[in-house]
């Protein structure tokens, strides 16, 4: 299984970005796809997850601002990030949890700054 993330970049506070992560290989339900992030000097933290049945879970810090979705036909997960804040600055990693194993993408940098 391989995960390829894209969509990071530099955005001003209040702006929006959309991250995508395409999974390839042996993908089958049930599974959970998600996004985590790691800011400098901090531990990696959960941002949002979505099950193969589309049940979602969000960190309190992003509720109401971020939306996770997935396209099962394309094995792709998306993270729409609105009303971005400087504290959202981090490397964002996509994750696939399947059959008791975790797979990680390479990370994409999101920087929120004026």
Could you characterize what this model shows?
The chain is 0% helix and 56% strand. It contains no helices and 11 strands. It has strands at 2-6, 9-11, 17-24, 31-38, 45-51, 56-58, 66-71, 76-81, 90-98, 101-104, 108-112. The strands form 2 sheets. Strands 2, 4, 5, 6, 9, 10 and 11 form a 7-stranded mixed β-sheet that branches. A 4-stranded antiparallel β-sheet has the order 1-3-8-7, with no helix packed on it. The N and C termini lie far apart (37 Å).
Q: Topology, pairings included?
A:
Elements: E1 2-6, E2 9-11, E3 17-24, E4 31-38, E5 45-51, E6 56-58, E7 66-71, E8 76-81, E9 90-98, E10 101-104, E11 108-112
Parallel strand pairs: 2-11
Antiparallel strand pairs: 1-3, 3-8, 4-5, 4-9, 5-6, 7-8, 9-10, 9-11
Query: What overall geometry do the principal axes of the alpha carbons give?
Result: globular
- On the 0 to 100 scale, the average pLDDT is 96
Order of helices and strands: EEEEEEEEEEE
The assigned structural class equals mainly beta
Question: How would you sum up the major sheet?
Answer: 7 strands, mixed
Q: Please give the share of residues in helix.
A: under 10%
Beta strand count: 11
What portion of the residues fall into strands of 2 or more residues? over 45%
How is the quaternary structure best described?
A: single chain
Distance between the termini: 37 Å
Number of helices: 0
Radius of gyration, CA atoms, in whole angstroms = 13 Å
**What are the segments in which pLDDT stays under 50 over at least 5 consecutive residues?**
none
């Amino acid at each position: 299984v391989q995960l390829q993330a894209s969509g990071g970049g530099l955005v001003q506070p209040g702006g929006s970005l959309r991250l995508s992560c395409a999974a390839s290989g042996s993908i089958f339900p049930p599974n959970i796809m998600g996004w985590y992030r790691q800011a400098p000097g901090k531990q990696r933290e959960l941002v949002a997850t979505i099950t193969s049945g589309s049940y979602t879970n969000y960190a309190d810090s992003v509720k109401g601002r971020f939306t996770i979705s997935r396209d099962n036909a394309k094995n792709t997960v998306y993270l729409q990030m609105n009303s971005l804040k400087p504290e959202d600055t981090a490397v964002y990693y996509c994750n696939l949890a399947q059959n008791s194993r975790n797979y990680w993408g390479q990370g994409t940098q999101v920087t929120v700054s004026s």
